[in-house]
Design goal:
5-stranded mixed β-sheet; 3 domains; 13 strands; Helix Hairpins; 12 helices; Heat Shock Protein 90; rod-shaped; alpha+beta; 4-stranded antiparallel β-sheet
Length: 472
Amino acid sequence: MKVVTSVVIGLLLAFAVYAGLNKLESALVYNYYTSNKAYSQSLDNSFAELREYIKKNKISSTNSEAMQKWLEENPYTYLVVYDNYGGYFEDGWVAEGKSRSTKIETAKTTITESTDKEKDGKSGPRLTADKHINGNDRVVSFSDDDYYVYMEIYREEGFRRIMKIVELIVGFIVILGVVMAYTTSITARIADISKDVTRITSGDINADIQTSGSDEIGVLADGIDNMRYSLIERLEGEKAAWDANSRLITSMSHDIRTPLTSLVGYLDIIEGGKYESEDELHQYIQACRNKAFQLKDLSDKLFQYFLVFGGKKNPQKLEVLDGDILFQQLLTEHVAELISYGYIVTMDYEIAGRLVETDISSLRRLFDNIFSNIMKYADKRKAIKVRAITKPSEDKAQSDEFVFRVENRISHEAKQVESTQIGVMTCEKIAKDLGGKYAWSDDGELYITEFSFPVHHEVAEDEKVEGDEKEA
């Protein structure tokens, strides 16, 4: 579109330049060719040159060849040689719209007086010199006699032709200049984008793509820059994941090596019979069993972590379900399990009649992880507070939320164990994949877990009926 615009602008500028040069041409033609003063001067010079040419070459009135040669040397000139009895020569450049015969008639109309001189059987005056001293019609002396010479000059026509060519050339240059300027700007922008892309491909991923304008090249530059941002985000995500995995491996290797070393030590004692009684043997066996379960717990956490973060992501099967029934069932199951293991639980449930869009399998895994961590680290002597509510949204453009909050005191034994945070990272990832949020806080005494999910938009019954009628 901008190419067409540049061509149109070029045409308009060319037309304006053409009009200006045409006006200049008219002014120059008038000043140097067609004004009374300029034309009279040019006519006087032409008659003087003609008289000099006739005198020098001794040309007679009937020497047409010599007269035509003079006309060739003096283009844009019309010439008639005549007297009262007729014409002897007529040739030259004729202005458009007039014929040569009219020129002769025009010349003859100026002859009105008579004398007694005769020529070729004709009577009357042959010349009236006093009437033809100035103007287009004058008396010129040839080698054979004096004759009237009628002359018209159009020297401006040569200048006009030159100016027309100049005007066309200048107009073409203007159009070409505008198009070339636009093309040069486009080429420069493409070259800038190419340089930026080269810098990026050479490793400088943070090099900005220079974007300007809203045309196709601007859109292309924006697209490349957006692709660069996406690549940066991907690389940063991969780096963050790599760093997280490295930290996890370092932490897990320490956590696994410690119980494994103890387990090997206890087994060496048992194998070497380095115990003093059966009771001491049973203690070593029990210690081995505890370390084995500790290793099993770490391997389970590791498996859950890589199930959520590693490999190809399995597509979730989202379903719209009754949030009241679903969440009440999940919480009731886990609260009952906590109570069966001797934990004190208080539950505040305030969810009623709202829908949720979720994947049941992922949601169940989230609840399993949360309450599994509570069973491992909560103090049985202190009550575990579980609360579930529906929180209205302050922004009408956003949905209400199902909010869950679990508070528990941390047991003394759990404080001695350094956590790898695998369970927390797993829960955060699951909640995010389900469109929810997950947060936690730990001050060393109180551990708080809070997570939420958006309420699914409920279609009003009358809207549903109206939609069904439209489909029908």
